[in-house]
Every structure is written in structure tokens, then in C-alpha cells.
Design brief:
Elements (H helix, E strand, L loop, with lengths): L19 H17 L2 E5 L7 H10 L3 E6 L8 H4 L4 E4 L6 H15 L4 E3 L6 H10 L7 H4 L5 H10 L7 E4 L2 H10 L4 E5 L9 E3 L2 H10 L5 E5 L5 E9 L5 E9 L3 H6 L4 E5 L5 H14 L4 E10 L2 E9 L5 H10 L3 H10 L14 E6 L8 H7 L4 E7 L2 E6 L4 H4 L5
Helix pairs in contact: 2-13
Organism: Aerococcus urinaehominis
GO molecular function: ATP binding; metal ion binding
GO biological process, one term: purine nucleotide biosynthetic process
């Protein structure tokens, strides 16, 4: 074949009036990029709203971001659509067969898929089933069982030699009675699966226990001794491809379970300037014990003095606005940090704490003295962000403003 005719065999985008050697090199370079690109599949890329920021940063690092969702393409956020390589619509993500067909289509078109994830906790188990079915790296359904039930979590906390509250899983009235005899009042009864605060009960004495027993529908519960504590500490972080903690920050709230229930679901959070050595050790041991990789995580502890009790381990970020709390507190881009971890673009420096920022949450339809616009007017220089999600409105402010935000209507 004459050399000058070689360019005719190239795809149209390379069939130009360049020297044949340059055409060949450009073609090979493009093919190599396609072969080496990370194929990253996200389920429900529009949930939660800040998922688009992760998509954008992944795309910025040359990751091919593919997505499957049950939102019509033309209804997706324009910012999100512009950074997706391709989107596959299914009428319902509950239809696992349709989702499997979508993933098979992507494999046929783009080659092997390197990651399957969702930034919404609702689709973590679906992602695990897809990883198992297509032999993709990451947590499979069996591993996901470790974080589905609190009773299973406690077993892994104990294997990691991290203290937990004394308690027992219960499924029958007989087990409830037996467990209560082994524990000291006051008690906490909470669903073994799920995180609905309305289903958590503080049982001060036998009368409370009897009342709970009468109304309990035998949904699996966890009965534990209620522990005195100074504050709730939530550690949010990221795990790299080796299963090591790449970044972690401790979010504290002076309000505990009983206070938040009695005060109508109002919460105040801020980030500790640094985590003490014991907390760092607990987090490292727990993450190592659970053996998850390539993920964000959340760990909850009760802190009393210099001691911690492990409560809950979750995959993903349970509160999207916490990412912005981290960004402002550390003057970093946590979305980009996670994307660089996933794209494996090199070593990442540990960000340093910059300043205290406060996150306030309150029920969206609560009876308060000031509405959201008035609060932002009251703090024009320090109000950073406002978000509405899951029936709560959240404020990020660079000063303590709880008395104003939670002030009841007169």
C-alpha cells in the first residue's frame, strides 16, 4: 500500500493533510488514551445534588464518567450533563435487569468498567450487586452486609478492639426481656438497620421498656445501655485503593440523641482543628477491619473525656453539605481530592485546618423567628452556603449563630 494512502484508513478526525508519521502517532496516542482511561460508572448521578461536583472533577482528571439513572436525560442538570461521557436511562433503578443491560452496553462500547459506585446511600447495595455480577473491584454484597446492620458493625468494631456500648440484637419479645435483664437502665432501642431518628427510643426505666414492648412490631432492633457522653463525634473521610485512610476530619456536635429529639431535630456541627491520637488509631483500625477501598466513609463515636465508643460505620457521605463544611474549614476542594484519589494522579498532601466554620440544621417547616433569607441578611459577611435536603435546611456560617438560627417565633 502506498504510504501516502495510509491516512485514508484513519478515522475522519485524523484524515487530514499532515505527514503520515504524525497521523499515525496521533492515532496511536488517542487509542492508548482510550485503552488507559479509567471507566467510572455512577448510579443516579443526580443524587445528591452535589454529585455533579464529583463528576466534574473526575472528568477534569481524564476519567470517563458513565452513568445509569432513572431521571430523563433532558431533566438532568446542565452542569452534570456536560461532564458525563454517556448516560443510560432506565425507567427505574429498582429494575436490576434493566441496569444490568445498561452496564453490559457500556462494557461493549467502552471496555471493562473499573469502578461502580453511587454517591447516594440508597444505591450502595445495587452497586455491590453489579460489582459481583461483572467481577468489578470493590465491595460485594457479602461485604456490604458488614455495614447494613448495626449489630454486624459492632462485631467488626470489637474485632478491631474499639470499645462499643454494651447491648444485644433483638428480634422477639422474649429476646427483648432477656436482653433487658442483662443491661442497666437507661437504655436505647434503635432499629438494627436504617437511620430514622423517629424510630429510636430512650428507655429510662421499666415502664418505658414495657411501653416500647407493647408498640414494637418485631422489626429487628438493637438494645443498648445509654452511655453518658460529652459529645457526638462523626469522622468523615476517604479510603484509597490500598484500603488506607487518605483523609479524615472529625465533625463534632454538642447535641446528643436525647437533646436532638427533645428540641425538634435541630443540630449544630463544626470540625475539630485536629483529631487526637486515640481517635486516629480507632479510625485506622476500623477501616482496616472493614477492608473497603475506593470509597468515602462516615464513622460515629460517642466521646466521654478521652474515651470513644464506636456507634456506626457508613459508606459514602450521609450529609452532602459536610463536603462544603470540609472545604471551607480546610480551604480545600474535597471533590477534587476524591477525584484525584480515584484517578490515581499522584501523592496527595494532607490539607491543614484553616478556620472554624459552623453548620446549623433545622426542620424546613419549623416555626422560627427568622426565615432563611433573614438569617443570610443578618450574617452578610460570614454566611457561606445554604442548602435544603431531606426536610432540613442547612446553613454554613463562619461564626456561632445558633441562638439566632434556632430562635423560636415570638
Amino acid at each position: 500500500m502506498p504510504t501516502e494512502d495510509f491516512g485514508a484508513l484513519m478515522p475522519a478526525r485524523f484524515n487530514c493533510k499532515k505527514k503520515p508519521a504524525m497521523v499515525v502517532l496521533a492515532y496511536i496516542n488517542t487509542i492508548l488514551k482510550e485503552l488507559l482511561a479509567v471507566n467510572y460508572l455512577i448510579l443516579a448521578p443526580n443524587q445528591p445534588a452535589n454529585s455533579r461536583e464529583y463528576v466534574r472533577r473526575l472528568a477534569d482528571h481524564q476519567v470517563q464518567v458513565l452513568a445509569i439513572g432513572d431521571c430523563q436525560y433532558d431533566q438532568l442538570d446542565g452542569h452534570l450533563k456536560s461532564h458525563l461521557t454517556e448516560y443510560y436511562y432506565v425507567p427505574s433503578l429498582a429494575d436490576q435487569e434493566a441496569v444490568v443491560r445498561g452496564l453490559a452496553f457500556f462494557i461493549h462500547k467502552y471496555g471493562l468498567i473499573d469502578r461502580v459506585t453511587s454517591f447516594s446511600p440508597a444505591y450502595q447495595e445495587l452497586a455491590a450487586h453489579l460489582r459481583q455480577q461483572f467481577n468489578i473491584e470493590g465491595a460485594k454484597p457479602r461485604e456490604m452486609g458488614r455495614v447494613t446492620n448495626k449489630s454486624h458493625m459492632k462485631q467488626f468494631f470489637e474485632k478491631a478492639f474499639v470499645p462499643v456500648a454494651k447491648g444485644q440484637a433483638i428480634k422477639t419479645k422474649r429476646q427483648l426481656t432477656s436482653a433487658a435483664k442483662k443491661l442497666d437502665f437507661p437504655l436505647i432501642a434503635k432499629p438494627d438497620a436504617g437511620y430514622d431518628l423517629a424510630q429510636i427510643y430512650y428507655l429510662a426505666d421499666q415502664d418505658d421498656l414495657d411501653q416500647f414492648a407493647e408498640t414494637w412490631d418485631l422489626t429487628p432492633y438493637l438494645l443498648e445501655e445509654a452511655c453518658d457522653f460529652d459529645q457526638l463525634v462523626q469522622v468523615i473521610g476517604m479510603v484509597d485503593d490500598q484500603g488506607q485512610v487518605a483523609f479524615a476530619a472529625a465533625v463534632t456536635s454538642p447535641k446528643g440523641l436525647r437533646e436532638s429529639q427533645s428540641q425538634g431535630g435541630e443540630f449544630a456541627f463544626t470540625i475539630l482543628p485536629e483529631m487526637d491520637d486515640l481517635l486516629v488509631a480507632h479510625v485506622d483500625k476500623i477501616v482496616k477491619q472493614f477492608k473497603f477501598k475506593h470509597t468515602m466513609f462516615s464513622l460515629e463515636f460517642l466521646q466521654t473525656g478521652d474515651k470513644y465508643l464506636a456507634l456506626v460505620f457508613q459508606l459514602g457521605n450521609p450529609m452532602p453539605i459536610l463536603a462544603d463544611l470540609v472545604n471551607y474549614s480546610f480551604d480545600m476542594d474535597s471533590y477534587d481530592y476524591f477525584a484525584r484519589l480515584e484517578a490515581q494522579t499522584g501523592d496527595l498532601d494532607q490539607p491543614e485546618f484553616k478556620e472554624a466554620v459552623y453548620l446549623y440544621q433545622r426542620p424546613l417547616n419549623g416555626n422560627y423567628r427568622y426565615d432563611d433569607s433573614e438569617i443570610r441578611d443578618l450574617y452578610p459577611e460570614t454566611a457561606l452556603a445554604y442548602q435544603v435536603a431531606d426536610g432540613q435546611e442547612s446553613f454554613l456560617i463562619k461564626e456561632e449563630a445558633g441562638e439566632t438560627i434556632f430562635a423560636p417565633a415570638e
